[in-house]
Every structure is written in C-alpha cells, then in structure tokens.
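Need residues for this backbone.
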C-alpha cells in the first residue's frame, strides 16, 4: 500500500467542529426568521426516547411550508448539525424534519388542526406512571 503524503489529513485526524449553539435554539430562531406561525416547542425528555424536543409550527400555504423546511435544513447544516432526515416535501401539507435530538413538524393550518399532535405530547404522563 502506498504511503500518504505528509501533508494529507485522513478522515480520522480531521478536526470535528462541535456546533456552537444548541439545536433547539437554531431551530426556533430559524422558524422565527422564516415567519412560521403558532410555533410550539414541547420538551419530551423522559416521555420518549425518540428525541428531547418536538416542535410544531404552521406555514400559511404549501409553498410556505416547503420554504420553511428548506430554510431549516440549511440552518441546521450551517450550524454544524449535518443534514436532517426529511419527509413530506413533495406535497408540503405536513413536513417532518428529524434532526435527531429535535423533531420538527411543519403543517398547513388545516392539517395541523386535524391531527393536533402537540396536544398529545403536552399531556402530563406522570399521572399514568405506576
């Protein structure tokens, strides 16, 4: 096997920059900048192993929902969090952005009202614990 030149950095030696801002802050700021409406952030730490936070927001139209999702993908990448998994972009009625520690749902208002998922996650599960 040929030796690497001395000035070559292998992947394991490349410095990994840790994100400077918490992911939830990046997401909430991005939603505000994108003019998302009725933003609700729910701390689901201890309620689910899926994530630490779930954020629900509305866009005014399908085009706005798609634009908000695109802006969030870019903001997360620029902040050092990589590219999140995204579902629902082709139709933009309900776009789910799974960034790992934070899951973001961006709805058109009618679709959000129909599913009302934030109500389920805001419920107090402590009374159900035995």
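Answer:
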């Amino acid at each position: 096997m040929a030796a690497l030149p001395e000035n070559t950095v292998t992947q394991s030696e490349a410095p990994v920059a840790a994100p400077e801002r918490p992911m939830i802050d990046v997401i909430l700021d991005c939603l505000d900048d994108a003019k998302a409406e009725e933003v609700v952030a729910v701390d689901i730490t201890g309620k689910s192993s899926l994530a630490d936070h779930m954020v629900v927001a509305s866009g005014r139209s399908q085009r706005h929902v798609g634009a908000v999702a695109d802006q969030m993908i870019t903001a997360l990448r620029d902040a050092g969090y990589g590219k999140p998994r995204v579902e629902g972009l082709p139709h933009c009625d309900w776009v789910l952005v799974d960034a790992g520690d934070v899951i973001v749902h961006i709805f058109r208002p009618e679709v959000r009202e129909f599913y009302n998922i934030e109500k389920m996650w805001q419920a107090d599960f402590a009374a159900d614990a035995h």
